Amino acid sequence: MGAVEPVVDEENGEKESKIRDVEKGEMDSQQRGFQGQPTPAPAPAESGGENFHMSRMQRLSATNPLRLVMNAGTRVASPSPYNAPPPAQHRQHRSFPNPFHHRHPPAPAPSQHRHAPVPEPAPVPAPSQHHPSPAPSQTRSTPAVTPQPSVITLNSRSYTNKFSLFLFLIHMIGAIGLVCFLVFKGIQGLLEAGEAQRKEKRLLKFFLPQVEAASLLSITLAFTWQKAMRLWPTFMVHFILWGSFIFTLAAGILLICFQRPSTDGVGVVLIIFAIGNGLYSCWVTPRIKFCTKILIKSLEPVPKFGDLNRPTYLTLAAGFLWMSMWILAVIGAINFYFPPLVIIGLVLSMAWVTEVMRNVVNLTVSRVIGLYYLRGMQSSTQFCFQRALSVNLGSACLGSLFVPTIEVLRVVARALNLLEGEDEFMFCCAHCGLKIMDSIFKRGNGWAYVQIATYGKSFVKASQDTWELFQKREMETIVDSDMTSAICFLTGVCSGSICVIVIGAWTFTVYPNFTATLSLLSAYVGYLLTRIAMALPHACVSSYYVCYAENPDNRLFDKTIQDRLNSMKTDRDVIVPTPRSVPSRFAR
């Protein structure tokens, strides 16, 4: 028996050392987590019959309560995404109770007798489920939520500016009802014998043919100007600037030559407008070269879309039919109450309807050309036209109602700021008015139609975003001095003046009493229908500017705008200044 005991001791020693190694391996993760903590001194050894060796814990059954408690103490919690571990700089200052530091006493020496008392570690307290609360100075960190950028869709199906769309639909229902009623009154007056019948016959004979001829002539001129603008843009810019001056002046002189009080008044107004037109043409002469470059570059994608003019054809056809019904309603208003007020209402309604038609074409072309610049896509013109007539129609209605008014008031405010005088109060008021109009212009301008058509934004949002893009690229001065809108406006004036010359001469020959009335009406019809056709080049130029501001590194853009900006910064290219402040005489 004495020879066997040392073997048992060695085996037990080897087993105990292996167990200690295993336990040490289990505790490595605990010790690595608290390397910054000093190791506490071992508890004093105790002796007694009830002492037991810690290594015997490994021999307990897996269902033993004490073994379950000890395993629960060594269990490591799985990481949670909501309870992130504290930073390293804070972790080393926190202390956690570790009941297993005293679990492994030092191994006995090999020469030690097996009956020597083995020092027992301090009793291990049961692990508590209560977690120590963090220090008051520490705050629990929550994972920061990074806001995701809003996804910009190119096929938004939400209607824009629904209230404006609702108002326009109500207006159209009322206008169609009024036109139908007035046409009925005209037919009724034509069938009844008396003075009303004679008036109706006279109007149908000497009034209706001239207006229909003016409509057809203006449509013909509109397509002629548009085709010439696409083929010879350099020539057409000069021709429109000075042709509108010549035709307007000729129309005014012709009406004065009729020597009738009504025609004299209209002729004087046209001559005054022609003088202002000529002064504007002289003033913007330095801008013509840059305007021509942008116009040529922006019209380059048009041949890639063979059906891009189809919405213009359809819109002008619809405009001609509506104009014919409108003329019959004007004739029928003679037999209704308050004919002047009814006719004024019909004129304003026609202005809004034709402006909406023009902006529908503008939205269609802006989407086709804008997607070509931004995404390299060749969009379906028919699909873009359907979107303009449905999803984006509310924005077209709102823009048609406010953009012309804002532009006119802005021009008036600028004209007042160009003048200098002795009345400081008046010019301070003009300066204040210009600031107000500039602020309104940033929230409602014609440049918004590109982003309305492309991204489906509302009118005000698109106006603000577009102007912010221009400010980001430092393009405000360039776009503010752009002549494209003025060229399209003067194209309509040119058509209206030609209609005045033709219709005025015709009417004076057959029935002179209608000369002044038909001259004004033909100028109005010629201007409105021509502006619809000129929406295509205008939309192309607007898309070029806006898409360049959004992505100037696109390979479809050249260095025309960038060179212009560089020359302006180095004072090598001087743009005619646009009035934006109080005249220098009153500057403080």
Automatic annotation (TrEMBL):
<feature type="transmembrane region" description="Helical">
    <location>
        <begin position="235"/>
        <end position="256"/>
    </location>
</feature>
<feature type="compositionally biased region" description="Low complexity">
    <location>
        <begin position="127"/>
        <end position="138"/>
    </location>
</feature>
<keyword id="KW-0472">Membrane</keyword>
<feature type="region of interest" description="Disordered">
    <location>
        <begin position="1"/>
        <end position="60"/>
    </location>
</feature>
<keyword id="KW-0812">Transmembrane</keyword>
<feature type="compositionally biased region" description="Polar residues">
    <location>
        <begin position="139"/>
        <end position="149"/>
    </location>
</feature>
<keyword id="KW-1133">Transmembrane helix</keyword>
<feature type="region of interest" description="Disordered">
    <location>
        <begin position="75"/>
        <end position="149"/>
    </location>
</feature>
<dbReference type="InterPro" id="IPR007603">
    <property type="entry name" value="Choline_transptr-like"/>
</dbReference>
<feature type="transmembrane region" description="Helical">
    <location>
        <begin position="337"/>
        <end position="357"/>
    </location>
</feature>
<feature type="transmembrane region" description="Helical">
    <location>
        <begin position="483"/>
        <end position="504"/>
    </location>
</feature>
<feature type="compositionally biased region" description="Basic and acidic residues">
    <location>
        <begin position="14"/>
        <end position="29"/>
    </location>
</feature>
<comment type="similarity">
    <text>Belongs to the CTL (choline transporter-like) family.</text>
</comment>
<dbReference type="Pfam" id="PF04515">
    <property type="entry name" value="Choline_transpo"/>
</dbReference>
<feature type="transmembrane region" description="Helical">
    <location>
        <begin position="163"/>
        <end position="184"/>
    </location>
</feature>
<protein>
    <recommendedName>
        <fullName>Choline transporter-like protein</fullName>
    </recommendedName>
</protein>
<feature type="transmembrane region" description="Helical">
    <location>
        <begin position="204"/>
        <end position="223"/>
    </location>
</feature>
<feature type="transmembrane region" description="Helical">
    <location>
        <begin position="268"/>
        <end position="290"/>
    </location>
</feature>
<comment type="function">
    <text>Choline transporter.</text>
</comment>
<feature type="compositionally biased region" description="Basic residues">
    <location>
        <begin position="90"/>
        <end position="105"/>
    </location>
</feature>
